[in-house]
Structures
1.
Amino acid sequence: MSIAIKIFLTGVDIVKSLGKVNDRTERRDAAVNRQRILDTAQKLFEQNGVEQVSMNQIAIEAQIGAGTLYRRYRNKSELCLDLIKDKIAQQFEDIDKYMKEHYADPPCQRLKEILRLFICFIDKDLQWLTEVNDGAVDQNRVYNEMHEIVVKIFSEMTESEQSEPNNVFRTDMLLFALLRGYSFQKNLRGYSPESFLEQICLTFFPTR
């Protein structure tokens, strides 16, 4: 192999190595920026409330460019979802565990207990979830995963009926009542989590 070819191949290897180093640096920088954004957003949200904080305010406080922020998060809905993703994951692990342990219980009983767990979750993280729910429904993991669970249970409850109701529609209405109506019923109507649960059950699947 000629000296010229060896020099060329060595140069190619160096360029590849530099590219890998640059990729690692960029990934590390992106991770640092992400954590800075999340830490700043959480601090501002806790101090001022989610509604009162703008994306530009977060960028300024985090000392990053607005473009960097919007490349990572298109809106506050996505940012809030990232902030509570671990809590969301835990919530669905709890629901899955309950479903496995109580698979033989009547479907109406299972649905009520799942809703009890879900309302407790909403009550603890209401302001974060309110912002998440303002995002697109089709991108909302909380909505989509709960929708799948509830539709299946409603289908169990109505499988013996001659004229089966539209369980997808009923689930849509139930989840909108939970995710968008809970704050109103709690703060303006004075319902506790337990009394709200009872009203939801009476409205959507009354005991026969």
2.
Amino acid sequence: MKTRSLITIGIFNALLLVLLGIGGMISALFPPLFIILPIIFGLIGGPVFMYMIAKCEIRGIFAISGIIIGVCMLTMAPYGSMGISIILGGVFGEIAYGIAGSGKYVSAVIGYCLYILGYAFGEIFPFVFFTEAYIAQEAEKGGSTLHVVKACVEMLNVPLLAVICILSIGAAILGSFWGKKLLRKHFEKAGLV
């Protein structure tokens, strides 16, 4: 069962990475989309996480997912801040899931909200606080993402960071509810409804 659960977690995190990659490529064409990626991720990731929680019989879903996605994002922002934030979001999500009572829908929603908050904070924080380092990093890469980073830096500030984090939590709640509706049969089987 543990092996099957780990494979399920791996497959769905690969799916999430593909969706994030597609979102990142599309946002290169329209930089404001990059800013709202955490909100979009909160919505589309909800069913994925709810399915993993219903199907996997091991502890650590949020932490494992945070580590997988976080390690893949370590080079995306200066000082590894995006990856570290996602990893911490996963760890805090796992802790909250355990404290609130593993196997309960409400605790799954709380854990997922913290996971998404880690992603939102990790994506936006470097634009606001590591501006020069972020621009220098992208200029050194020589890729086409420099204009996206500059456009996002011009749009973002601390109040907008807070708004995006709050909206991301709201999106995570809606995504979790959507996941519960889509996967009601799996939730009933797992005893989460």
3.
Amino acid sequence: MADWRNRVDQICSKIKFQLNARGVDNLVQLKDVFLSFDRDGNGVLNQLEFEEFLSKLGVFLARQELRVVYDHFDMNKDGNVQYSELVAMLKSDMSNERLAMVKRAWQCLSGGAPQVSFESLVQRYNAPAHPRVTSREKKAETIMSDFVGLMGEKAQGGQISEEAFISYYAECNAVLPPDRD
């Protein structure tokens, strides 16, 4: 079973790599991709839809591997893969290095305060320095819009806490391949 667990981890990494290569940077974009494979519109992927999802991403599996992987992704064993199950399988803990970097960024932005205003965080966000912008894969305006929308969902009373800031980057980590950390 441990061998299959390692194989599932490798497949999750490959899915993240392929999503990242297609420009998927956050959970909203992941949901759009997920729903594009939900042919019958019922909000879940059956085995055939899941297989198509994987193959269109470039993840090709033998029939037996597909069955085992599908069973792992179908966490509640209802015969379908729900979006929340997909996210749970792809979400991994941030590496210690990435978590330390996110905490250093928070300290820089907050000056040690427990919260900062959402507005000041947006003003200080440097979208042109984002790796997708510097590689010319995306425009700074798109990156900024995504940041404002997703970080804005975490604001409470116009404030962002350190926990919310870390949570935002943990969600980004769900679609970030380990080698892009």
